[in-house]
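Purpose: get a first structural picture of the assembly so the mutagenesis plan has something to point at.
Setup: two entries, given in the order below. No constraints added.
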Amino acid sequence: MAGEGVKLLGYWASPFALRVRSALKLKGIEYEYQEEDLGNKSPLLLQGNPVYKKVPVLLHKGKSISESLVILEYIDEVWKHNPLLPEDPYERARSRFWAKFVDEKCVPALVGVITKVGEELEKSAREAREHLKTLESGLDGKRCFGGTKIGFADVAIAWIAYWVRMEQEAFKIQLIDQQNMPLLAAWIDYVLEDPVMKEFMPPYDKLVKHTRDLREKLTAVVSN
Amino acid sequence: MAGEGVKLLGYWASPFALRVRSALKLKGIEYEYQEEDLGNKSPLLLQGNPVYKKVPVLLHKGKSISESLVILEYIDEVWKHNPLLPEDPYERARSRFWAKFVDEKCVPALVGVITKVGEELEKSAREAREHLKTLESGLDGKRCFGGTKIGFADVAIAWIAYWVRMEQEAFKIQLIDQQNMPLLAAWIDYVLEDPVMKEFMPPYDKLVKHTRDLREKLTAVVSN
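Result (structure tokens, whole complex):
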């Protein structure tokens, strides 16, 4: 499907850019992808997202849209086929609630696991486990947040599946407990096997190295 | 208009409950309002929002919806007359972007002005001024965020107008500068004169006392 000059500014290790790439793929929208150098951001990025100066930024019809969840809503409204959000207003509210929950609760905890040490690291890991357990309740007994097929909340949350596994292995820390979170563990398997969802996950070894480097840099003050 | 058994759980001083009350009023939806005692939350609140246990919670058709921005979207989708969000997807994205900006940037800074002391207070006030200046850019030269009439973003942001004035007066601190933010200052006057927006603003003196009491309680450890 013609994307009417759609362009996406992203970064390979950004879970937020990943959301937008998956959504565009699910809709079958053609677009130009521009990888950003976060140390030397392009004028397009700085002009397209003057408030946060962050990826992702979607450029379409001479306008720029930023904030990944806002972009997902935009994509779903402009290209109405293969809807990401369910039809029922209550189910739409549920999808938005869980996408927001991940950004507000899971992101800080999972970032904490990467950037903190000692007791603070333990605290972040504990919080991550608690939030993941809460997130599981959002599945409401179903295979995925979209019910029977990948939807808005799955697209928004899929990166969690990849990052949780990566953080567990890279930092030898347990975040998900198969016995305690069986539904979420099954969802993780499900989204990571989905061809669209897995297409945009960053190369695993590169992400591990990137995250370990980030951790070393950010914890240098504490550990030196 | 019949509200089909709509009920709202709120709290008089909650800017987030205020959003929902204004939205229901703009739509002309009849509803039952239940004031919560936040020290002794009702079973309806605890069951209706088990994740955050916070107001507002909207109850409708046996379902509960929480998170004020999610509730606003729900209201706009269930009762389609007098739409809060504009029709154009790009303008809808802009409305969502600024509502989200306020929650992510302005809320922590304005809470900081209430709860912090000394240098930390100065820092919060400086951040609040910067974020309010950025927020002004969202008006894009227009009278309100909805363009020519009160819309989704105005409903979401209106409380800022009231709280900024209140914090300035209660704590003798400048947050908004008429000369530096003329458009935002004009918007503040505009929303505070709007009959629907002002209807649900908490009684001023009661809010000042409530906020001063909160400040005393929260800063007691520091100032004793």
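The two ends of chain A are 53 Å apart (CA to CA).
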